[in-house]
Amino acid sequence: MKYDAVIIGGGPAGLNAAQLLGRARRNVLLCDTGKPRNAASHAMHGFLSRDGFDPSELRRIGRSELEKYGIDIRDHGAVRISGSLDRFTVILDSGEKVEARRLLLAFGMKDQLPEIEGLRELWGRGVFPCPYCDGWEVKDEPLAALGNGAKALTFAFLMFKWSRNLILCTNGSSEIDAQGQGALRAYGIEIKETPLKKIEAADGAVHLVFIDGTVLKKRALFFHSPGIPSSDLAHQLGCKMSEGGAVAVNAMCQTSIPGVYATGDLAHPDGLPFPPASVIVAAGQGAIAGRAIDRELLLADFEASQRTA
Questions:
Q1: Residue 161 pLDDT > 70, yes or no?
Q2: Orientation angle between helical segments 178-187 and 149-159, nearest 10 degrees
């Protein structure tokens, strides 16, 4: 079957794009593996009228709203894409093959976590990636930041806004230059270079256990995880990637490949220093991409009608 658009990814970006295109009477297929990046989170913030709302419930409601617009949904991911503008072929992991005039990549990123015992198990439950998302709930509590180098320096200063009781764990010899270390000391932020052995949860806190036997009890640990695309489909298509590994897009969420769009934390819009990993931004980008796809199809159909008139 040939669709006007195939959307790969059923998070807020993909769902919002699907709803807009459905309301525009487009024939749409939404494919989703059901493995969102924020699966460990039970509350989202920074979303007007939905502060503290469970993101899984947002996805459930978003899916249910698509039913009246006739959106086809497959609980499968895409594994291969070939073709070009107006003639894309998408193969799902179920073996199903579909065709599409336009593609929207909304499958997101996945976190790269350091191999520290307990960290993965506590991800989203005492170990958090984003202070904008979870910092308020632990403000002014004893906190730790995990990281090294220039990015960790910036992250530590960011975390200082939420708590002045802060330690930076570099998990090995510090790669922060002397000037940076001096700035941290001026703020009263301690640097601990001893490698971490494991992280445990107890009594509403995280216990950071170091290889020398030292144990630090903190209310939470923050680690800004570098993300990588959760699928290689953008590379299959030859999309231009940003320096950080996201898909480069313009203001209308168009990639470097004609007919291919990208949204959500997978997309790095022109002019921004980094991809805006935010539920509400992802939903907004989905709306932008949906309108852009509809408009592009409309113009293409009009031009085709003029050629045959």
A1: yes
A2: 10
Question: E strand or H helix at 235, and its extent?
Answer: helix 233-237
Distance CA 40, CA 128 (A): 10
Return d(Cα 9, Cα 104) in angstroms, integer: 8
Q: Sketch out the chain's domains with CATH numbers.
A: 2-111+226-308 (3.50.50.60), 127-223 (3.50.50.60)
This prediction has a pTM of 0.94
Calpha distance 268→260 (Å, rounded): 14
Question: How far apart (Å, rounded) are the C-alpha atoms in residues 206 and 151?
Answer: 23
Tell whether the torsion through CA atoms of 63, 65, 68 and 71 is positive or negative.
negative
Q: Which residues of 113-137 are buried (b: 16+ CB within 10 A; e: fewer)?
A: eeebebbeebbbebbbbbbebbbee
Q: What separation in angstroms does the CA of 24 have from each of 15, 37, 227, 275, 282?
A: 14, 29, 33, 28, 20
pLDDT, tens digit (0-9, with 9 covering 90-100), for 93-137: 999 999 999 999 999 999 999 999 999 999 999 999 999 999 999
Residue matched to tokens 């992991």: 93
